């Protein structure tokens, strides 16, 4: 597990391109038959991936967590951005398809990932946060029939925003949040930009009570996303390619503009789960 330390905004102002990428960019995700995990001391979020191809992958705590098993004191969200996959949790099997997700509650001991077809492997994207209570483990689908362990994203949590004229026509799909899938602090969702739209989270904002990680995907090979970060009056940028993630501290804006439309997964952890608890940044104040 790779460790990333926290960063002061006063230090970040002096970073060059390579240092910005070293601190905040998470690259080389989704390696075949590997689990990759990055532990950030910013709210102690773990961001990672599991890509089972020829074998089943088992999630272990490793020495870094000083725990008997990975979710001994943690909760976890997973969204599959690849082929059909299977997650087995303490012997119970869940079929997880493309853009379906899971919330896995604290206390789950044995977690493994597999793909249904090696030629079309699943790509499980992972966010994990410290937890103090066990909430139910559930499979999260965008449509279908709910059951005891299957949650369907509510219509009010599929929010269409923006316009083509503003280059930000998009749909926000909220997967894990209070009132739909309960958690201790983790929230996750997916934002899909419509064709012709390229801006996300603009006008931008910060939120002092939680941090965020973005995973950009469905970015064409010849395209890129300019991810903007930093204090509103001291902005910086990181060039993002397909299936790369970026860490955003609570003091930083988090906004992007692509050369083509794209999709991204957002994950937030912190002390406040109020989705609308944001400090909006006036466009005239950005520097």
Automatic annotation (TrEMBL):
Zn(2+) binds at residues 205, 207, 212, 254. This is 4-deoxy-L-threo-5-hexosulose-uronate ketol-isomerase. It catalyses: 5-dehydro-4-deoxy-D-glucuronate = 3-deoxy-D-glycero-2,5-hexodiulosonate. The gene is kduI. InterPro entries: KduI, KduI/IolB_isomerase, KduI_N, RmlC-like_jellyroll, RmlC_Cupin_sf. Binds 1 zinc ion per subunit. It is an enzyme of class 5 (isomerase). The keyword Zinc applies. The lineage of its organism: Bacteria, Bacillati, Bacillota, Clostridia, Lachnospirales. It comes from Butyrivibrio hungatei. It holds the Pfam family KduI. Belongs to the KduI family. Its EC number is 5.3.1.17. GO terms for biological process: D-galacturonate catabolic process; D-glucuronate catabolic process; pectin catabolic process. Keywords: Isomerase, Metal-binding, Zinc. Catalyzes the isomerization of 5-dehydro-4-deoxy-D-glucuronate to 3-deoxy-D-glycero-2,5-hexodiulosonate. One of its GO terms (molecular function) is zinc ion binding. The keyword Glycoprotein does not apply. Its cofactor is Zn(2+). Pathway: Glycan metabolism; pectin degradation; 2-dehydro-3-deoxy-D-gluconate from pectin: step 4/5.
């Amino acid at each position: 597990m790779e460790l990333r330390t926290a960063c002061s905004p006063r230090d970040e102002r002096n970073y060059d391109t390579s240092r910005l990428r070293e601190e905040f960019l998470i690259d080389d995700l989704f390696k075949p038959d590997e689990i990759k995990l990055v532990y950030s001391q910013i709210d102690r979020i773990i961001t990672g991936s599991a890509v089972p191809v020829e074998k089943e992958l088992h999630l272990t705590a490793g020495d870094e967590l000083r725990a008997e098993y990975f979710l001994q004191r943690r909760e976890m969200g997973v969204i599959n951005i690849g082929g059909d996959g299977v997650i087995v949790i303490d012997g119970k099997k869940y079929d997880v398809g493309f853009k379906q997700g899971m919330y896995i509650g604290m206390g789950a001991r044995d977690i493994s990932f597999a793909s249904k077809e090696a030629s079309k492997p699943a790509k499980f994207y992972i966010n994990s946060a410290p937890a103090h209570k066990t909430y139910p483990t559930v499979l999260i689908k965008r449509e279908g029939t709910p059951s005891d362990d299957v949650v369907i994203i509510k219509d009010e949590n599929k929010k269409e925003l923006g316009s083509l004229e503003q280059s930000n026509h998009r749909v926000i799909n909220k997967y894990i949040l209070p009132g739909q899938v309960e958690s201790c602090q983790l929230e996750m969702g997916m934002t899909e930009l419509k064709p012709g739209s390229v801006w996300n989270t603009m006008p931008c904002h910060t939120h002092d009570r939680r941090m965020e990680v973005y995973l950009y995907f469905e970015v064409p090979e010849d395209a890129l996303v300019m991810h903007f970060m930093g204090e509103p009056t001291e902005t910086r940028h990181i060039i993002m390619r397909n299936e790369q993630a970026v860490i955003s501290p609570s003091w930083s804006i988090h906004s992007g503009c692509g050369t083509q439309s794209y999709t991204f997964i957002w994950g937030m952890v912190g002390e406040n789960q109020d989705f609308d608890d944001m400090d909006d940044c006036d466009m005239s104040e950005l520097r």
